[in-house]
Amino acid sequence: MSHTPNLLLQNVRPIGGNFDGTDTVDIRIAEGQIVEISAELDSKEDEELHDANGSYLSGGWMDMHVHLREPGYEHKETIETGCKSAAFGGFTEVACMPNTNPAIDSRDVVEFVKNNAEQFSVDVHPIGCVSKERKGKSIAEMGDMKEGGAVAFSDDGDPVYNSQLMRVALEYSSMLDMPIINHEEDLKLSRPGHMHEGRVSARLGLDGTPGIAEETMIARDILLAKFTGGHIHVAHISTAKAVDLVRQAKADGVNVTTEVCPHHFDLTDEEIERRDFDTNVKMHPPLRTQKDVEAMIEGLADGTIDAICTDHAPHAIQEKEVEFIYAPNGIIGLETAWSISVRQLLDSGALELAELITKFVEKPREILNIDIPKIEEGTPANLTLFNTDQEWSYREELVQSKSHNSPYLGESLKGRAEAIYNNGQFVINTI
């Protein structure tokens, strides 16, 4: 990483806004601002020069659903290591979930996270709790947390189970113009499930979580959002029927948005059998069926699913190296999200490049009411430099996260983020 307020990016192909990714240009950045865009620029003495050799350049990517674990669980991840992981994956901004210790349920904890992240190349936007201590009993100080810099509210890790509490939260959502992000799970239907309930779970003898556990909670929240006028955001959607529910709700004018993780449009529950109970394919919601995977891709293609997120969930090695039923849910995802998206969405023809970039750049920020970075003269430089065709291997020594719980370790991937520029810092990813 270099503190590089002055930079000349040569031979980049911008995509987004007025650019379609076909023409090669040079972009001059001075004091963290884009000051010049032209077909050919000469470098100055006081600026760093980087020849991109025709790689794409977009506004900086954003992941609106990550777990940075700090404060309280720094043995899994810290704000610093999470930001390094994000930068390697091409993300210049992340929104972090509040299931920390203490939980992000007050303005002082929101400000602690923001202050600790100020020095890094990745902007961190805290998501505050819906309920105090994430206990689901009383509403948290939402207005105060917004003043401190929170961008949304969630009890993620657990659902907002109490319907009256969710109603109140959505009413606040309407007043504050901020989304309520719910972990959609009917606990009475889902527990003690360790994977998707279906043929594979029956064959393996594991307790399963049925899709209906997710769908009933989504249906409730859609009805409450319609009733209150609040904005419900469905976290990490995973079933075909859930996508249908959101699609219909959008058609009915309900203020509902949703996101999907790469593992849910790439892997199925059969991975658990194929990988002999590898705990790095244990997550929540669980990996579903091929039909569900196809529904995720279709939902992205038709706009039902707004954004791609990772649900980056670091766990220490000793926590995952246990029997499958005792392992915590979750995988790291920041570093492989682009490559999996290229494979499943771009190379398959499901999405065009410009459509895919929208899911990474514009949609997460629209949902969270955050300024969308632009490739224009006179704007702050918040940029991701990337390709769609470079083959690379995701190896242990490349992992920037403090944790290594990924099902993609050792895999050959294609397409990667080459660098980011944000906050006057230019971070080049070497592999």
Automatic annotation (TrEMBL):
<feature type="active site">
    <location>
        <position position="311"/>
    </location>
</feature>
<keyword id="KW-0479">Metal-binding</keyword>
<feature type="binding site">
    <location>
        <position position="99"/>
    </location>
    <ligand>
        <name>substrate</name>
    </ligand>
</feature>
<feature type="binding site">
    <location>
        <position position="67"/>
    </location>
    <ligand>
        <name>Zn(2+) 1</name>
    </ligand>
</feature>
<comment type="function">
    <text>Catalyzes the reversible cyclization of carbamoyl aspartate to dihydroorotate.</text>
</comment>
<feature type="binding site">
    <location>
        <position position="236"/>
    </location>
    <ligand>
        <name>Zn(2+) 2</name>
    </ligand>
</feature>
<dbReference type="GO" id="GO:0005737">
    <property type="term" value="C:cytoplasm"/>
</dbReference>
<feature type="binding site">
    <location>
        <position position="65"/>
    </location>
    <ligand>
        <name>Zn(2+) 1</name>
    </ligand>
</feature>
<feature type="binding site">
    <location>
        <position position="156"/>
    </location>
    <ligand>
        <name>Zn(2+) 2</name>
    </ligand>
</feature>
<keyword id="KW-0862">Zinc</keyword>
<feature type="domain" description="Dihydroorotase catalytic">
    <location>
        <begin position="59"/>
        <end position="240"/>
    </location>
</feature>
<dbReference type="GO" id="GO:0006145">
    <property type="term" value="P:purine nucleobase catabolic process"/>
</dbReference>
<protein>
    <recommendedName>
        <fullName>Dihydroorotase</fullName>
        <ecNumber>3.5.2.3</ecNumber>
    </recommendedName>
</protein>
<comment type="similarity">
    <text>Belongs to the metallo-dependent hydrolases superfamily. DHOase family. Class I DHOase subfamily.</text>
</comment>
<dbReference type="GO" id="GO:0008270">
    <property type="term" value="F:zinc ion binding"/>
</dbReference>
<dbReference type="InterPro" id="IPR032466">
    <property type="entry name" value="Metal_Hydrolase"/>
</dbReference>
<dbReference type="InterPro" id="IPR050138">
    <property type="entry name" value="DHOase/Allantoinase_Hydrolase"/>
</dbReference>
<comment type="pathway">
    <text>Pyrimidine metabolism; UMP biosynthesis via de novo pathway; (S)-dihydroorotate from bicarbonate: step 3/3.</text>
</comment>
<feature type="binding site">
    <location>
        <position position="156"/>
    </location>
    <ligand>
        <name>Zn(2+) 1</name>
    </ligand>
</feature>
<dbReference type="InterPro" id="IPR004722">
    <property type="entry name" value="DHOase"/>
</dbReference>
<feature type="binding site">
    <location>
        <position position="315"/>
    </location>
    <ligand>
        <name>substrate</name>
    </ligand>
</feature>
<dbReference type="Pfam" id="PF12890">
    <property type="entry name" value="DHOase"/>
</dbReference>
<dbReference type="GO" id="GO:0044205">
    <property type="term" value="P:'de novo' UMP biosynthetic process"/>
</dbReference>
<dbReference type="InterPro" id="IPR002195">
    <property type="entry name" value="Dihydroorotase_CS"/>
</dbReference>
<keyword id="KW-0665">Pyrimidine biosynthesis</keyword>
<dbReference type="GO" id="GO:0004151">
    <property type="term" value="F:dihydroorotase activity"/>
</dbReference>
<feature type="binding site">
    <location>
        <begin position="67"/>
        <end position="69"/>
    </location>
    <ligand>
        <name>substrate</name>
    </ligand>
</feature>
<dbReference type="GO" id="GO:0004038">
    <property type="term" value="F:allantoinase activity"/>
</dbReference>
<dbReference type="InterPro" id="IPR024403">
    <property type="entry name" value="DHOase_cat"/>
</dbReference>
<feature type="binding site">
    <location>
        <position position="183"/>
    </location>
    <ligand>
        <name>Zn(2+) 2</name>
    </ligand>
</feature>
<feature type="binding site">
    <location>
        <position position="311"/>
    </location>
    <ligand>
        <name>Zn(2+) 1</name>
    </ligand>
</feature>
<dbReference type="InterPro" id="IPR011059">
    <property type="entry name" value="Metal-dep_hydrolase_composite"/>
</dbReference>
<keyword id="KW-0378">Hydrolase</keyword>
